[in-house]
Specification:
four-stranded antiparallel sheet, 2 domains, single chain, alpha+beta
């Protein structure tokens, strides 16, 4: 069996990194360029706006009058649009809180701006340090509309991001011919990225396969989990089934704790595929949170949704493809049972930790 003091020390070192189960933050922007004007919107987590205006919770956004000047000053300082080294003057037009804020404390905010440049825009630059105090990886997804054409950008950004945008028609024509493919590829990348920093999903996947006895059993378990989370991912992203996100996160955390506990104390685990399927349904709601945060592009909903799901599966298969051969190979060694117990103890502890931290969002 594992040594408890060592496990506690190990978890203590992990907690700063794992304090959020899946800390992906996506900022989505649309920009409409017409002559010397750039009308643009920015969609991001309402938790950031709570921090900007100095409130304690998302619910207070509906009770308090939002300090528009404070928001305007923040964006003026941290988002600069320029045309040939000349700063375009931006003005805030409106702020819209996501309609589902009351059932999803991690809902989104849409802020709309208008930027006026010195002359007709043919090239512009975006320099941003928005939300630079957020310690986890962020993704900027941006659609630019110009002369009835659209181009798409996806960029990882940290403290400071610079993005040049060329508006020559020939560039847009070349990109528009394959824009469906480019958009699909971007959503696939987002799905892969979400899995690799989705610590809760990784913990669950490791937990359900660490006790496998054969490759056939592993395929059965992973297939059940994949089918289950794909179903609820699609239904949730399309708003066919809506569940309070904080409830889904609590159940996901409990599923991780349960798997770890079962690995530790059940002498013979039966029908692990059924357990993977049941809990996979709730993990699908967790996956859909990313799509709800950025929104599905109009006219591109189904392809975006399916592409994101493909990305999730690619990331999942990469993790499983690494873990399963290792488990099947090392199970012949005498120390492997102790390793399984140690790993399951970590998984159980993480599940309990995420459940407790998730309660703060729920109440």
């Amino acid at each position: 069996m594992f040594r408890k003091p060592f496990l506690i020390t190990f978890l203590f070192l992990l907690l700063p990194l794992l304090s959020y189960a899946h800390p992906l933050d996506v900022v989505y922007s649309e920009m409409f360029v017409v002559d010397d004007h750039i009308n643009y919107s920015i969609k991001f987590s309402s938790l950031h706006l709570v921090s900007i205006v100095g409130l304690e919770s998302v619910e207070e956004l509906n009770k308090e009058e939002i300090d528009v000047q404070l928001i305007r000053d923040y964006f003026d300082e941290n988002l600069i649009i320029s045309d040939e080294n000349r700063i375009c003057h931006s003005s805030l037009k409106k702020i819209i809180l996501d309609k589902n804020y009351n059932i999803n404390p991690q809902s989104s905010i849409n802020i709309y701006f208008n930027a006026v440049c010195k002359e007709k825009v043919e090239y512009f630059e975006i320099s941003t340090s928005l939300f630079s105090n957020y310690p986890y990886p962020k993704i900027l997804m941006m659609d630019v509309y110009y002369n009835n054409e659209t181009t798409n950008f996806v960029k990882n950004y940290n403290e400071k991001t610079f993005l040049p945008v060329f508006l020559e028609e020939n560039v847009f024509e070349k990109q528009s011919e394959s824009k469906n493919f480019v958009r699909a590829l971007n959503f696939i990348k987002t799905g892969i990225h979400h899995i690799f920093i989705g610590y809760d999903h990784i913990a669950f996947i490791i937990g359900i396969v660490i006790i496998i006895l054969s490759f056939k059993q592993a395929v059965k378990i992973v297939t059940a989990f994949t089918i289950a989370h794909s179903i609820t991912l699609i239904l949730s992203a399309l708003d066919i089934i809506v569940i309070q996100q904080s409830i889904a996160e609590l159940i996901i955390a409990l599923s991780i704790a349960y798997i770890g506990f079962e690995n530790l104390y059940s002498k013979k685990i039966k029908k692990r595929w059924a357990i993977a399927f049941i809990f996979g349904l709730f993990h699908g709601f967790g996956f859909s949170a990313v799509l709800k945060e950025i929104g599905l592009p109009k006219g591109f909903e189904i392809i975006s949704l399916l592409s994101f799901n493909v990305g999730v599966e690619i990331g999942q298969l990469a993790i499983v493809g690494l873990i399963i051969p290792m488990m099947l190979y090392f199970k012949k060694y005498s120390w492997f049972n102790s390793f399984k117990s140690f790993s399951s103890g970590i998984i159980f502890s993480l599940g309990i930790f995420w459940f407790i931290t998730g309660l703060f969002f729920f109440f």
